[in-house]
Give the backbone structure.
Amino acid sequence: MKPIAKSSKLASVSYDIRGPVLDKARQMEEEGQKIIKLNIGNTAVFGLTPPDEIVQDMIRNLGDAGGYTDSKGLFAPRKAVVHYMQQKGVKGVTVDDVYLGNGASELIQMSINALVNDGDEILIPAPDFPLYTAVVGLSGGRPVHYLCDEGAGWLPDLADIESKITPRTRGIMVCNPNNPTGALYPNDLLLGIIELARKHQLVVFADEIYDKTLYDGNTHTAMASLADDVLFITFNGLSKNYRSCGYRAGWMVVSGEKRHARDYIEGLNMLASLRLCSNTPGQLAIQTALGGYQSIDDLVAPTGRLARQRDLAYELLMQIPGVSVVKPKAALYMFPRLDPKMYPIADDQQFAYELLADEKVLIVQGTGFNWPEHDHFRLVFLPNVDDLREAIGRIERFLAGYRRRHSS
């Protein structure tokens, strides 16, 4: 593996999908209009709150949370992350390899800032989690999108990935389970991506924030458990599996081939020190969360709330003429397709704007996730079944009107 140089680039980033649609939503709310928000996986607003044992443990320890911690974080939660990685089959991880952050998002930004120099390229899935593309650009790099194939259950195509590797390619981002599609990658695909990383000496960035939000008995494989001769940077946190978005408690783990990454790791340490530390109360939740009762298992069970809402959203969407969707195996999202013959949408942001204005339902247009066509949108299936039925009913009504207006 080629030596990895650290970058002096520093940037802050907001990955919220901004623009006229959100501006319109804010205006409508200021006017007292009630909007059904299917645009963001903010669990708390849908009554999905953190486990009580996490809350109580934070409260008990809050009196000792007023000071800075080590720049990488407190020892006990970092040790808990080490144990968790061991449970996932990742070998050779020590406490020194674990960085705690203000959510996984901060750590994704940090890891890209430390690696990317001007003109460097990072491979990113399309559709993507918009943060990936944003931080690569803000770091002076060039995001290069590899396409995930809807016809193959939104799995990436290895040939497409390899065709986009150049001498400037430095790493590949893998989001598994996937946001926005809900795809879950099989081991043979993960091994294929690892082989490309090995062949072309790439860093593998593995975003596994939804690794417990799995349906239908599916299981997740930590990518870093499949090889030890490639450098892996794994991200995870409490936001989704533990419904703790606002705690901003995430972690990053460096594993695999580290011998040629000393400069890069030095850069990570420097950036961790520059922000002093992540918030201490959030750190205090990690050990209890990882070691406690995993209530997410109840939510994703066949009769659990999240599984029932996923099934209902899928059923209702598939009943709408011209709408198709790959049923998610994981995560909290769907990425439906609108048949272009029935819905000749030239501007999907305008489509989302009109849906909001007419039906008071907020979704995110597909191009907001760097999908190249205007034929998709993302929705979250977090609302309870009554609200979800109402929201998708409004989408169906809007689409029926769209078909009438655009029929030949």
About this structure: The first strand starts at residue 36 and ends at 37. The CA atoms of residues 146 and 161 lie 6 Å apart.
